[in-house]
Amino acid sequence: MARNMRLVCCPRNNHQTRLERQDASWNATQSIAVQHPVSLAINMDDSDVIVTFQTFVAVFSDFLIVAIHTILYERDIYPRDSFLSAKKYNYSVRQSRHPKVCQWITDAVDAVQTELLKGTVDRVALVIYSALDMPLERFVFDLSRFPFVPKEYHFTPMSRTTDDGEDVAVLPRVDLEEQMRATMSRLSSCRSRLKPLPENCTFTLAIELRDNTSPPIGHPQPWIPVQPDLRNTNPEAAKNNSRTTPLRSVAAGDMVFETWIEEAKAKLDPA
Q1: Domain spanning 17-268 has what CATH number?
Q2: Alpha-carbon dihedral sign for residues 25, 123, 176, 119
Q3: Strand partners, 138
Q4: 232: nearest Cα among 221, 240, 224
Q5: Quick check: 131 and 200 in contact, CB under 8 A?
Q6: Domain residue spans in the chain?
Q7: Residue 182 pLDDT exceeds 80
Q8: Are 216 and 7 a contacting pair, CB within 8 Å?
Q9: Calpha distance 4→217 (Å, rounded)
Q10: 229 FRET partner, CA 20 to 30 A, in 98, 132, 138, 240?
């Protein structure tokens, strides 16, 4: 799997830009050599950690890595015996044992993290495609309520106060872990709420940029432009072309985001 990516821009119906991680299409029929697992990133057990914006973004990135592994397992993108059991947020999760899959996920989330630190990301989505390259499902993480912090303050301790002037935790550890655990529980049970996928599906990771933000530049570039998939510029047409299943809203201090699943009509009602 190629690690370098190139940039492309594609306007959405709300004038945002959606970018896609290049070369994410790992085929489910590829042979998988089971290897020892990689560790699942940041440990949230340290209640004394000073929260900076860099820490804040890293905590979400850590969650995203676990979520992607979980989705790939639940949607049978790879054989189930190629995953092992792991523990995160005091909850049993699944993790791929294929080193290249693990590395691709890590690299993709690192690219997302770079854009999150710039404050440009509105949504992140894991998109699952059919063997004919038709989008079937999108697992969406709406980050539009994430704070924006200028680069020069990325390592400055964040603070949060109530309307009464009382200092409160930016990332309340117990509350955050509980809500992350609840979100993982919902992801882990999505199989029972979704129609099965066809064989030989592939996947990719996409981001949608906020209004009035510039697409990432530089070389090599980890993002390429993509065409609209489950969306439609006509709201009524969009309603008829996809089905949305809410998963979970997370609101723990400044960590506020929503998750849902979009299923395409091509999957729900194949011709």
Answers
A1: 3.30.900.10
A2: positive
A3: 127, 262
A4: 240
A5: yes
A6: 17-268
A7: yes
A8: yes
A9: 13
A10: 98
